[in-house]
């Protein structure tokens, strides 16, 4: 069978299974089994798939995934994140769009502590949206900053999806995690500046109100006691990798230990919420490990059917400009983000993208950061952005989905601006990893 018929057949079978309602991972497994029987020698190919799956999930580089997930679950289940929001609320005062800025700052801080986009959006939405709506905030200014900031949790470490992307794409895990910090901060800064400017030009979007007169210590004290100690968790994770003291595996274990110690020190940790955190971590980790098995075996089937090599020869990627290729791949990701979840997008695109990246000499860390941003944009892209539905679930019942989508639009544009900045100025992604190599 020629390579293009193999490629068309596998993709067509995958789409049919998806249309039939089969979950993405199991659709991939079904296609992988068929591909192994056709291109890998029948029963011997099936045995090889089993071996590949075992090798994939026993890879020690995947250890940070469950540990990063556990960090976020402990922060969420114990209520430490809620305390941080209250402290930031007291710190910020007398600025246009005050509560929107509280959402951005709190969301960015929580992003550096959990890495969970859904938890970030759900927590901020359920805590701040009702209060903002009660004070007369326009829905766009109430929900938009939360939707935008929720996605930052995917960028700033600890990020389980970042580890997954690095593992599947053959990118150094520590380099990718460190490389996303600066773009994440830039994105948060753009959100902050937009809210201040927009609310200054049109105060009706976020009516000012008297937040109460507090002394300097009453504003600063809660932040120092409730937020700064938690930021030490971020320092433990990132600082240990940045300083070359710990590998990503060791850093994630240190961060997980620090999170549990922090929850115990604040007297928030109970056997019940710890068990709930462990159960949720196990559920998510098993799902991700299934995804990794499916992706690894799909890549091998594509390779052995000569589909990947044949497609690269037809496209003649070695004669194309690397920038053109990068733009084309980002456009594909942005389009897929309108209809698919982030993990499915990784499964489908990485087996094609990474051989192209290596063939034309594109820096894999730089590409990985741009791919992370493109995947993050997909979280809020209509019509099927996951965070849109999370916001719908926590917003007032009368809130229409069209209103939520309109609220997300300015922040999607700012995320696209961040992607273009990283594309035009690669040092935004590569500067911090270069310091590690020194």
Structure, briefly:
This protein has helices at residues 3-19, 24-39, 43-57, 64-78, 80-91, 98-111, 117-134, 139-152, 160-169, 173-179, 181-201, 216-226, 228-242, 248-265, 271-304, 307-315, 322-336, 342-360, 364-378, 386-394, 401-424, 427-437. It has 438 residues and is mainly α. The protein is globular, with a radius of gyration of 22 Å.
Q: What is the total tally of β strands? A: 0
Radius of gyration: 22 Å
Number of domains: 1
* Strand proportion: under 5%
| Total DSSP helices | 22
Shape: globular
| Main sheet properties | none
Order of helices and strands: HHHHHHHHHHHHHHHHHHHHHH
Task: Please identify the oligomeric state.
Answer: single chain
State the secondary-structure class. Answer: mainly alpha
Kindly report the average pLDDT value: 81
Distance between the termini: 49 Å
> Which bin fits the share of residues in helices?
over 70%
Low-confidence stretches: none
Description:
- The protein is globular.
- Helix 4 (64-78) runs antiparallel to helix 15 (271-304).
- By secondary structure, it is an all-alpha fold.
- It has one domain.
- The protein has helices spanning 3-19, 24-39, 43-57, 64-78, 80-91, 98-111, 117-134, 139-152, 160-169, 173-179, 181-201, 216-226, 228-242, 248-265, 271-304, 307-315, 322-336, 342-360, 364-378, 386-394, 401-424, 427-437.
- The model has no long low-confidence stretch (mean pLDDT 81).
Task: Tell me the layout of helices and strands.
Blueprint: H1 3-19, H2 24-39, H3 43-57, H4 64-78, H5 80-91, H6 98-111, H7 117-134, H8 139-152, H9 160-169, H10 173-179, H11 181-201, H12 216-226, H13 228-242, H14 248-265, H15 271-304, H16 307-315, H17 322-336, H18 342-360, H19 364-378, H20 386-394, H21 401-424, H22 427-437
Helix pairs in contact: 1-2, 1-16, 2-3, 2-15, 3-15, 4-9, 4-14, 4-15, 5-6, 5-12, 6-7, 6-8, 6-11, 7-8, 7-20, 8-11, 8-21, 9-18, 10-22, 11-21, 13-14, 15-18, 17-18, 17-19, 18-19, 19-21, 20-21
